[in-house]
Amino acid sequence: MGIDQFQPQERSISIVNARVEPSEKETGMKVKAKAAVLMDAVSGEVLFAQNAHKKLPPASVTKVMTMLLILEGCDSGKIRLSDTVTISERAASMGGSQMYMEPGEQHTVEELLKGVAMVSANDGCVALAEHLAGSVEMFVEQMNKRAAELGMKDSHFVNTNGLPVANHYTSAYDIAVMSRALIAFPETAQWFTKWQDTIKVGLPGKEKEFGLTNTNKLIKQYPGAIGIKTGFTQDAGYCLSGAAERDGTRLIGVILGCTTSNIRFAEIKRLLDYGFSNYESVKIAEKGQVQKALKIEKGTPSKVDVIMEDDAAILVKKGNKNRIKTKIEMDGYIKLPLKRGQKLGELVVLQDGKEKERFPIVARDSAKKASIKELYIQMMKKLIET
């Protein structure tokens, strides 16, 4: 599927709040940072935490939320990746990391996203915010609203790019949550994992090639790295939200407040190494897989398959794979009419008899109340079969 062809679809990101967050005491690991988190990207389960909910300045890691809102805007159909964006005076005036764009020049949403993802373009963030929301202020309101929806209780955004400003903060845990939502968009992989690219910047007739070199060295240094975003200011220190995938296991590591760039990359590698060494992803069921056949009393059809709404997988400690069992719990009496895709219950995953996760199961097809003629036909079929 082309980058500009994806259609609006439902994206379900479950929020895990009431989980124990393993710390140095449980893992034997201490990270050289003000705060750190290691999270399973599939379930949201926290595998390691160090000052996970401490409110800290995130620098350019802020842009995870900016990119998330833009891609969700594309997903909903409000904007498109192919849209042309005119760079405003405000966007062009941004300092720090930028694409050095001039007021009045034009770029597509996709080009600006690439600039934000690869070179942390502050000017690109402002241009994208203005395109989606009409103004930076309205976009920032949307950032805080989305943070609340995702359960990010330790965050407050004041700008789109993380440039130093009062009362702009988040936490390692919250960054992991919004990073998990962002990489649910497969489109991000082509920007996060690309090391170098070029883009033309400048007004018509004065365009010049501008080189894009990814700020995230993790993608060159760590096998399986798939992103996500670096950040640095004097106040925030060296920060990183990094993700990697191996053998179907996808992890997100967040490091905040390191004293050097080398330390942040070294510590994120330690976090990810710990996760891949101790945990593995276990696939429970595939999207659309039939879990049971539901008999519909006085309905047509008389049976409807109950299927998985999405792929189901959980993370377990290595060696515990065989201790996983599942059971189906239905919601109760099913009223007609029944709509295709309607939630009917949940597939419950148990480890050693204790509940670990739940996944929605839905109706494959619609069903309605049968007419007298349809009930008669069903009755005759039963008589023939017996």
UniProtKB/TrEMBL annotation:
MF annotations from Gene Ontology: serine-type D-Ala-D-Ala carboxypeptidase activity
Positions of substrate binding: K229
Keywords per UniProt: Carboxypeptidase, Cell shape, Cell wall biogenesis/degradation, Hydrolase, Peptidoglycan synthesis, Protease, Signal
Gene3D superfamilies for the chain: D-Ala-D-Ala carboxypeptidase, C-terminal domain (2.60.410.10), DD-peptidase/beta-lactamase superfamily (3.40.710.10)
TM stretches of this protein: none
Entry-linked SUPFAM superfamilies: beta-lactamase/transpeptidase-like, Penicillin-binding protein associated domain
Name listed for the protein in its UniProt record: serine-type D-Ala-D-Ala carboxypeptidase
Organism classification: Bacteria, Bacillati, Bacillota, Clostridia, Peptostreptococcales
